[in-house]
Every structure is written in C-alpha cells, then in structure tokens.
Write a structure and sequence with these properties.
InterPro entries: FUC_metazoa-typ, GH, Glyco_hydro_29, Glyco_hydro_29_N, Glyco_hydro_b. This protein is α/β, with parallel strands linked by helices. Helices cover about 25% and strands about 20% of the residues. The protein has two domains: about 5-390, Glycosidases (TIM Barrel), CATH 3.20.20.80; about 405-490, Immunoglobulin-like. Helix 5 crosses helix 11 (about 370-385). It starts with a helix and ends in a 14-residue tail after the last strand. The structure holds ligand FHN.
Length: about 500
C-alpha cells in the first residue's frame, strides 16, 4: 500500500506542489531582496503601481469570479463511479490520475473525452448574470488548462472546441456575455500542456529538444496573438503553468513576448506569474521588483500582514472546496467554505488593497454546482447591501481590529464586523499620533446613527486611543455587518497620564 502511494500518488502531488514550493516563501512574509543589487536585463516591463484607467479599474474591482471549465468537467473528479480523490492532485488534474484507483488506459480515455463535450445547458449569459448578481466586477476564464484543450477554435492545434460535438467558440460567448454585463474579462491561459509533443518540463538540451521547444514557444505566441485578435475586449491574461524549467529557460523569448502583447493591446494587465528573469527568479526579479502588474501568487492563501505586500496590487484566487478548481460532483466528506468564510476572506483582501476572486467549476453540461449557485446568491445579497465598503476602497491606516476589517474611501471609514463583541461595544483603536480618527458612526445598512465616544482607558505604554461605538439595543444581524464612520481631526488630545513607576 505504502509502496503504491510512493509510486503513484506522491508524484501527482509533487508536480503540483514542488512546482510552487520554490516560490511559496514569497507569499508568506516580506519579499527576499539581495544584499547588493544584481544586474537584471530581462526584468519588469511596466512601472510599479501603474496609474492608467485599466489598472485603476483593477484596483477597484473588489470581487471577481474565476471559472475552470474544460474536458475535465465531464468527469467531475470521478469516473464510472470511482472517485479520483487521492489519485489525482485536483479535479482539473484528473488526467494525471494514477495509482491503484486509476481506470485502465485512463490518459487515452481522457484524451478522447473531448469527443463527448457537448454542454447542452451552457448559456454564457446565464453565467454572466449570476456573476453580476454576485457583485463580480471581473471574470477569469480558463481558455485552455494544462490538458491543452482549447475552448476556442484555435488555428494552431486540433485539440480544440471546433472538433468537439459542441463546435461553437465558447471563449467568444463568455467574453461577449460578461462584457455585455459590464464585467471585465481576463483570459486564463496555461502555458504548460500535458499532451503536446513539443512541450517538455526540463530545459531543452539537445538540438532536437531545442527545435521542438522552440516550436512550442512559437505555438504559444501564435495562440496568444490569436486570442488578442479574436477577443479585443479583454482586459488581461491570467497565466498559469509557467513553473517548468523549459519555460524558465526561455526568458528572452518570454520577455519579448510580453512586450509584444503589451504593444498590441495597450493597457493589457498581466500578473506576476507569466515569466522570470535570466536568473530564474519568478514573480519578482532577482532584485525583488515585481514582474508584471500585480502579485499573482495569492492562490488559496491570503496575506497576514499588510506590510508583506509592499504596496503592490494583488488578487487572491480561492476555491470553495479545500482544493479542486474544476467541477467536483461529490462535495461530501470535505470542508467546503461557507458564505461567511468567503465574505470574511473578501473583506480581509479588501482591507489590504486586494481583490478576492472566487472560483466556480461548472459541470460538463454547463451548470454550476448547486452549492455554488447558493453561495453566489448569498454573497450577492450581502455585497449589494454593503457595496460601499467593498468597491473603490483602500486600506485604512488604523490599528487592525480583531473584530473585523477596515476599509476606507476618502474620509469615510468602514469596519466590517465579523466578531461581534458580547457587550455590544465596538472598540476602535487609533494610533495616538493619528491625524484622523472616527468622529461619527452609523450602521451602513439602514443608516441608523450610533453613539460614538472616546474611551481613554489609560493603559500605560499603550500607543492607541480608543473610540467606542455602541450597538443599538436589540440589533440583530445573522451575517457580518458594516459600521460606517466619518473620519476627522481628533477633538482633544488624551490627557498625559503619569507613567507607572515600578
Ligand atoms: O495547476 C493549476 C490549478 O489546476 C488551477 O488552475 C490553479 C488556479 O490558480 N492554478 C494552478 C496551480 O497553481
């Protein structure tokens, strides 16, 4: 048994996790910086914190939707009643299913599945309407995942939607429907392709390997230019599968490709996952400068400290199940995030200037999982009521609250309370030297004015002053609620208290 786990199951997980392990440290603390600057020729192509309208819009999105859809959705993480759990790293990775539970000749079965791809219920307008009702301002859509199956009729590979019974261009329908709803579209594009004979994980060594990989690079370039031409409304690309040594070795090509894409499509947004510098540094070049327009490594994780972000734009992409981006028929026996969990993550992201992107994995017919439908509806109801605290807001320079998350717009301060105090007094801490402190408070929903009073609790060595907002008697809320406060100059300095003598 153990032998089988080592032989079959571990490699599948290792592909997914070692790939990301090397970069993992980037996302859980301050960024690494060399002691002395290093010469970097293939570094960032755009200024830090772009100020153009497209990037400003990105900053203000707040909430996004990710959709993983493809041939893997037909399987739903199982095949003929046998679950792929434990045998494949994630539902959209089911092609790499291995070990004792894997069906016989599985890869071959998978590679022929597209011949059954005929999603009878697919209606991009319905998805777009749902996303709009949820409050999403942008969508990231998988045009091609690691299996290489293209959901648009690409001229550069036969493994594409036009060869399936469905035939029609799915990417076009998604781009058009979401754009019509006022939702910006970003195309997810996996560089890595499992069944492309010209793709390889290792850096090409021999002339033959170099020739093949070069072909692959040009194929990738062609597909990207094709997407820009076919779908000129898109705002950006969301790249994935860029961690292999082969892609990393092509830093000159990828540098020029990024330049070309940007020239062809002014304003295009590309995250930090696309390419690396000549020293192999991904996301950030060897001097710690970001490679791309925003941090693209917050995948199923969120920053703990605002300072870790060093002022970069960023988004976090999140699954509802623990992992698994493509459709999973069976959600039993695993913890799936609740609406409250997700709203907490949304507001945590917003409090640190990030966007929160929630993933959906429709089934092979084009229907969302019923639980996803429910969550989207619940999120939408909450977001609609509390929109002011979510969109067009920035990080507030106040002492972080254990009760929830601050966001700010001009002199309006919002505290989204997730942990309601038992005494109904929401205590807000402002640094003693703060130029702006809360002066009035109300409930965002309903606008009821609340009593706000300074609370000079006189704790020695304390760097804060406090403001207590009293919740009305009988106030009930079955989800997080937002306090809206007006910021103004502090009315009086708190009395200088005598230091304790010990
Ligand atoms: O391997 C993929 C995975 O299947 C999924 O697409 C996620 C989404 O961010 N990206 C990769 C893992 O980092």
């Amino acid at each position: 048994m153990m032998k089988n786990i080592l032989k079959y199951v571990l490699p599948a997980f290792c592909i997914l996790f070692t790939a990301n392990d090397a970069d993992a440290q980037q996302w859980s603390g301050p960024k690494r910086k060399p002691e002395k600057p290093i010469e970097v020729k293939y570094g960032s192509l755009t200024p830090a914190n772009r100020t153009d309208a497209t990037m400003e819009a990105f900053r203000n999105y707040g909430l996004g939707q990710f959709i993983h859809w493809g041939v893997y959705s037909l399987a739903g993480n199982e095949w003929e009643g046998v679950s792929a759990r434990g045998g494949a790293a994630a539902s959209e990775w089911i092609r790499s299913w291995s070990g004792p539970t894997a069906p016989k000749d599985w890869k071959n079965t998978y590679d022929n599945l597209y011949k059954q791809f005929n999603p009878k219920d697919f209606d991009a307008k319905r998805w777009a309407k749902q996303a709009k009702d949820m409050g999403a301002k942008y969508v990231i859509f998988t045009t091609k995942h690691h299996d290489g199956f293209a959901l648009w009729p690409t001229k550069y590979s036969d493994y594409n939607i036009s060869k399936s019974p469905y035939k029609k261009d799915i990417v076009k329908q998604v781009v058009d429907a979401y754009t019509a709803e006022g939702i910006d579209v970003y195309l997810y594009f996996s560089i890595l392709e499992w069944n492309n004979p010209n793709y390889m994980g290792k850096a090409p060594q021999t002339d033959e390997e170099k020739r093949k990989f070069d072909k692959f690079l040009h194929y990738t370039r062609n597909q990207l230019l094709e997407q820009l031409k076919n779908y000129p409304q898109i705002k950006g690309f969301w790249f994935d599968g860029t961690w292999d040594a082969s892609w990393k070795s092509a830093y000159e090509f990828t540098y020029n490709l990024e330049k070309e894409l940007r020239e062809k499509h002014p304003g295009l947004i590309i995250g930090s996952r696309f390419r690396n510098d000549e020293h192999g540094s991904r996301h950030f070049d060897s001097n710690g400068n970001m490679l791309g327009d925003y941090e693209q490594g917050w995948e199923r994780k969120l920053p703990v400290e605002f300072e870790w972000l060093e002022g970069h734009d960023w988004d976090a992409v999140m699954t509802i199940p623990p992992n698994g981006w493509g459709y999973m028929k069976d959600w039993s026996g695993i913890y799936t995030k609740t609406t409250d969990d997700l709203l907490d993550m949304l507001m945590r992201s917003r409090s640190m200037n990030g966007n929160f992107v929630l993933n959906f994995g429709p089934d092979g017919n084009g229907n969302m999982h019923p639980e996803e439908d429910k969550i989207a509806k619940e999120i939408g109801e909450w977001v609609k009521q509390n929109a002011e605290a979510i969109y067009n807001v920035r990080h507030a320079a106040l002492t972080p609250s254990k009760l929830g998350y601050f966001t700010q717009k001009g002199d309006q301060l919002y505290l989204t309370v997730f942990n309601r105090p038992v005494n109904n007094i929401v205590r807000i801490a402002a640094p003693k030297n703060a130029q702006q402190v809360p002066t009035t408070a109300e409930l965002l929903v309903g606008g009821e004015k609340l009593n706000l009073k300074p609370a000079d609790i006189g704790l020695d060595l304390d760097k804060n002053t406090y403001y207590d907002v009293i919740l009305p008697k009988g106030f009930v809320s079955d989800r997080a609620f937002v306090l809206k406060m007006k910021l103004g100059t502090p009315k009086s300095k708190s009395a200088r208290l005598m230091d304790a003598k010990m």
